[in-house]
């Protein structure tokens, strides 16, 4: 149980284009999902917290117009990187919080490369 | 007050040894302390977690020791194996987590 999927697992795009990443909780409902960014050999940096049906809460320094988050249902959250630039290249990881076990379960991550 | 400090940054242990990774937190409101294991190119996987009402929790070869007064907690891996070689992250918080910097663990055969 507690499986979280992400799609796509990797994506290469041209500078200026937008990229959408999906995060799904497969066998449980998640009222809250988190989006993280991880640079090579570094820790996870929380970008935003999304609650189903409401606007996401962004961490300080994260541009909300750049990283659009939608939490459309209790099993799906999406992150859209708008007008991507090479500096947005990173490993993006989502997690889903289950109130039943009161813990975060992580997806496998999406590697984004912007050329 | 939101920091979680993790040490060491890297650790090399012989097979069968007991690596120990330490974390310290500042915020006394934190009430959930998980450890995650991450392999290269993969998302973190929950390994074991503890709440402040107990001082130790053991699951298989993994043990968390928790010292509430010192605001510290640690991960011990018994009978370590080469397959345990990974990066380990401690975290602290409640629903929202603050992560430590990570420890790159290598278990030599």
Task: Describe the fold and architecture.
The complex is a heterodimer of chains A (115) and B (109). Chain A is mainly β. Chain A contains no helices and 11 strands. In chain A, strands 2, 4, 5, 6, 9, 10 and 11 form a 7-stranded mixed β-sheet that branches. A 4-stranded antiparallel β-sheet of chain A has the order 1-3-8-7, with no helix packed on it. In chain A, strand 4 and strand 5 (44-51) form a beta hairpin. Chain A is globular. The model of chain A has no long low-confidence stretch (mean pLDDT 93). Chain B is mainly beta. Chain B contains no helices and 11 strands. The radius of gyration of chain B is 13 Å and the shape is globular. Chain B starts with a strand and ends with a strand. The mean pLDDT of chain B is 95. Classes of the chains: A mainly beta (115), B mainly beta (109). Chains A and B meet through strand 5 and strand 10 of A and strand 5 of B.
Can you tag this structure with a few keywords?
heterodimer, A: 115 residues, mainly beta, four-stranded antiparallel β-sheet, globular, B: 109 residues, six-stranded mixed β-sheet, five-stranded antiparallel β-sheet, 55% strand
DSSP strand tally of chain A:
11
- Sheet with the most strands, sense and barrel status of chain A: 7 strands, mixed
User: What is the CA-atom radius of gyration of chain A, in angstroms?
Assistant: 13 Å
What is the number of strand segments of chain B? 11
Kindly state the mean pLDDT of chain A as a whole number?
93
Oligomer: heterodimer
Anisotropy-based shape of chain B: globular
Strand content of chain B: over 45%
- Percent of residues in β-strands of chain A: over 45%
How many individual helices of chain B? Answer: 0
What would a concise description of this structure say?
With 115 residues, chain A is mainly β. Chain A has strands at 4-7, 10-13, 19-25, 32-38, 44-51, 57-58, 67-73, 76-81, 90-98, 103-106, 110-114.
């Amino acid at each position: 149980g507690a499986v979280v999927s992400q799609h796509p697992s990797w994506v290469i795009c041209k500078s200026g284009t937008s990229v959408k990443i999906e995060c799904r909780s497969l066998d449980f409902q998640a009222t809250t999902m988190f989006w993280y960014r991880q640079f090579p050999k570094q820790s996870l940096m929380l970008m935003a917290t999304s609650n189903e049906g409401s606007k996401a809460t962004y961490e300080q320094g994260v541009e909300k117009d750049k990283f659009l988050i939608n939490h459309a249902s209790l099993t799906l959250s999406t992150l859209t990187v708008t007008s991507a630039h090479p500096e947005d290249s990173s490993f993006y990881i989502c997690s889903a919080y289950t109130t039943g076990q009161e813990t975060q379960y992580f997806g496998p991550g999406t590697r984004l490369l912007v050329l | 007050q939101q920091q979680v400090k993790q040490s060491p940054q890297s650790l090399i242990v012989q097979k069968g040894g007991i690596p120990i990774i330490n974390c310290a937190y500042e915020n006394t409101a934190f009430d959930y302390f998980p450890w995650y294991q991450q392999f290269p190119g993969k998302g973190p996987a929950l390994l074991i977690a503890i709440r402040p009402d107990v001082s130790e929790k053991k699951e298989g070869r993994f043990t968390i020791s928790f010292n509430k007064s010192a605001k510290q907690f640690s991960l011990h891996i018994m009978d370590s194996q080469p397959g345990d070689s990974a990066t380990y992250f401690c975290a602290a918080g409640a629903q929202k987590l603050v992560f430590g910097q990570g420890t790159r663990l290598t278990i030599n055969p």
